Records
---
Amino acid sequence: MRVIILDSAQEIGTYGANVILDGALKGTIRTLGVATGSSPLAIYRALEERWIPALAQLKAFALDEYVGLPANNPQSYRSVIQREVTDSLRLDPANVHVPDGCAADLTAESDRFETAMAAAGGVDLQLLGIGRNGHIGFNEPGSSLSSRTRPKTLMAATRRDNARFFTDLDTVPRHCLTQGLGTILDAAEVLLVAQGAAKADAVAAALEGPVSSMCPASVLQLHRRATVVLDGDAARHLALREYYVDTEKNRIEGVGE
């Protein structure tokens, strides 16, 4: 796993945008896994500022969606991705896929979404944030490390964290559809970004703790092409922080990822 520590959200955004722009130009990134939340926003903004026609050719698959929110609800992830990704990067809406959280059969919808990803050739680069309890996507602690896209019940802590986007806690959905940890591991490459001291414990557990369902993000230790990009606050509890900085400073291209 490659760990990069930068000084600001802007630098993180620039780094992530560089990876995507380079891959889009070379044709190595054709399908992008997109995440919502505050963590990837700087990447999307940097891509919008440096937009190139190759970006418009990308296909995108969302990590997750709330159950029960209509697609036109401003807080549905379909709406969020429409605003932050589809419109800003000028993607063809037909190429942007979000699970239908209002489907009559949520299990069948989960299977359909998995099939659509496979038909697109899989995800070339999956963007991720991390929750304060170590979740990625909506894979809460206790999730199977081999799980696939499925319905899940959200933990109270996750709902409290997300309440800032809603009128009050009672309006935050209790259920979701999410790509599974096994689904995320299928991506050819993973880029997780985290900022702020509130994420420091989760980051340390994910990178330096045991691989465990109690910290779902720790499954990324098993991915052969995972990169984690942090600001100094998110990296503050890493025991090997000095080593990560030194490794990056003296990096041999393609080695030690």
---
Amino acid sequence: MTNSPPDAAPAFVVAPAGPDDAEAIAEFNLRLAEETEGKRLDPATVRAGVAAVLADPAKGRYFVARPASGGAPVGCLMVTWEWSDWRNGAFWWIQSVFVRPERRGRGAFRQLLDHAAGAAEAAGAVGLRLYAERENHAAHAVYGRCGFVAPGYVVFERSPPGATGL
């Protein structure tokens, strides 16, 4: 399915998420982990994590996409920040991207991304970054069509001893 022509009314409206969006965002994150990585996350932990971001803008920001006609969110993304001393500015990291399967291919992600990119530019960010599961080729293709390129970095992760990681 193709996106609407540029002069057509947007199919979705994107806005910062509010407390009323917490349950939908938590549901999206639970579905995202299962769909992309085959992981079943603890719902209470995810709900607490979403609530923490919504309560403290220093942790990140969620944006949600709703049908232009109104209604519940059909997708979301979260942004967090990473300071780059090399560039003397912040990269905005795009995370927790999810669009309901029945709404995919209709421009919701593109509108979410464009909204986040505009907010990043207004805040003086030096760039956008994101990561995707190595085998999530569908996401890789979407991100490539949106102008993202693989910068050549490999992400490593280490949890502190005793941490309850994935």
---
Amino acid sequence: MASYPGISGRTYVVTGSASGIGAATAAMLRERGAKVIGCDLDDAEIRADLSTPEGRRSLVDQVTERGPIDAVLAIAGGGRTGLLETNYFGAVATLEGLRPLLAQSPAPRAVAVSSTSSLAPVDERVLQACLDGDVAAALAYLDADPSLAGPTGAYGVAKRALNRWVRTVAPTAEWAGAGIALNIVAPGVVDTPAAAWIFADEATRNTVEAAAPQPFGGFPGRPEWVAELICWLSGADNRFVTGQIVFADGGAEAAAVGDQHWR
């Protein structure tokens, strides 16, 4: 039987644990000997709606009541309600709200899940409103322009803002200085319920695959492939990686961006 000393015996908080990448990650952690506190709208140890301020506070309060934790995995994303609110404000509130509890662990780790959709062009006004913590302004800008719906709107800008937030706070005294590794995993198109709309129509599937080819692993990817990376980054064996946006996307980001960061 395989041994996972960097995971076994640790306690993980996993948002979005009821389906998709969250479910795959929670299952993998349990198989490797971890205790998992699953959080989702339904079918989870903690039920909370991260699209609302009340839901975010409830999640933090309920986790805090359960005692020590070693890792926080902010995976919840698709959701039945507010894409912008859940994907950015919900993720940040989860990570910030649980940071003091997390810091008590001997090997605290945190991972947020973004997306290759964060590479799409975004409305800078919405992006800045997110980073300023101004939910009302961000939503007002979205509502004023229907063209901002979809991957270049609420979802894409939420993931872009999340990328920027992690890059900004990860090296600070509150995170790295407290021994907490904070990273992002950004999947490509993965076979999950949230992505079902892509596969429901052959023309849509072909269009999406052509726009974001995944030459390594194929199209779509599998949730457990992404979960494997999340598990390592959030485990005690990760002793030197923080502040990184790691694309688990079959090469889609590399194909789209090339070497522009290194010129």
---
Amino acid sequence: MSLLPSFSLQDKVILLTGGAGLYGRTLAASLAEAGATLILASRDSAKLQVVAEEETAKGHKVFAESLDQGDEASIIALKDRLTERFGALHGLVNNAVLRPMKGANGSAEQFAESMRVNATGVMLMHRHFGAVMAEAGRGSIVNIGSIQGMIGPSYELYTGTAMGDMPPDYWFHKGGMANLTRFYAALFGPKAVRVNCLAAGGFFNNQPELFVQRYSEHTMLGRMADDTDLGGSVIFLLSDASRYVTGVNLPVDGGYTAK
């Protein structure tokens, strides 16, 4: 029996929240190339429609939908639309994130808004879409987390740059995402639904040279992540190749957290 076909997403219906941002656009391309019937969902469905058209032009099956992750009614409405059209999803990638806080002194209102989308909203995505997967007796949920949910902030990386301050909400909800992953892995495991988290490391996005140098020296591979580094791990966690992997928080960080 050949193992390679188990890495394919052919004939799998996958929902990716956020598909036009820093991580989302590259993930959309990777999942579509792997053969998935891919649904992209976020508040800015117009941007997602552009992505869908670009990927469709390559011969891929990609669709755009509207979703406000901070609104339970919007989550339920999307679940109902997709279930009616495609049946139970085979995979869900929770990638959408809201960043209202810009530094340590951001307002309490900004922190609460972040939690509404990035904590409560992510929980509700598991509750509603995971329940449909559980009823079907199969599925894989992949949460796009961060190494910042595993470690404290490294202020020394930012010294002498104009990159600004670091917000506490991001550390809070990415840390919570890792344990939320374990909770739903335990809850849905008996129904053959797997739940895993990918803890992404720093992604190169034209940061100041000094920051890039410092960050790269902190990794074992000597560089920041680029747009080819996350897709393979996400495809693995969604695919049947990882059928005995659940409850994992997988660092994809060039060895940053291991050093």
